[in-house]
Amino acid sequence: MEEKQKAPYDVWIISDLHILHKNILRHQPKRIEVMGLKNEEDIKTHDKWIIDMWLKTVKRNDHVYVLGDMILSSQQNSIYVLHKLKSTGCKIHLIVGNHDKSTQKMFNMFDSIDLIKIVDFKKNVFPFLEEDFTVVMCHYPMVTWPRKAHGAMHLFGHIHANAPHIDFGVTKGDLMLNVGLDASMANYSLINLKDIYKWYKEILNGLKPKEYIEQISKENTSFVR
Fold it and tell me: What is the pLDDT of residues 184-193, one digit of tens each?
């Protein structure tokens, strides 16, 4: 797929950063090895690693969609972290998770805050798209979602790397993807929209989105539209 021109900004997607969450390393011990931490108490280095990774990746005017469980701390501490992340001049969209108690009310710190967010990425804005690309974002994995019958893709988090059997769908043919930091697609980095779209097109295998849904509905009687 040739890119005729460059998009005006990059779109990055991630879930489950768990910055300032003191217990996260007990639940996700692989982060200790990946991030070069001392032990499961080394949350300070954990947070610095994630913030540094963000600052090296995100540029001015980029859009970052965080699908929940971003920062778990007091409002004051959360604001301090958000100022660091926003120092690149990016726009941050929060899709609320179960650990966003302080951040979900900070409307002045985010460009949008939603429980479920539907975004239509336009092919006339992003040259790598072959058609308008609809993405439904939620912190939690869903069996069905808005516009699924028309080929909309569902991005989710929450499960980390704890349920890899649903990272790429609950039933065969689902256009859904686990974008959690610990999951295989992210592999401890922010995910670019271009890579998500590439995965989506590989699954479609040459079919138009609605054609794909029609075909998979016939092939898999357990498929939920």
Answer: 999 999 999 9
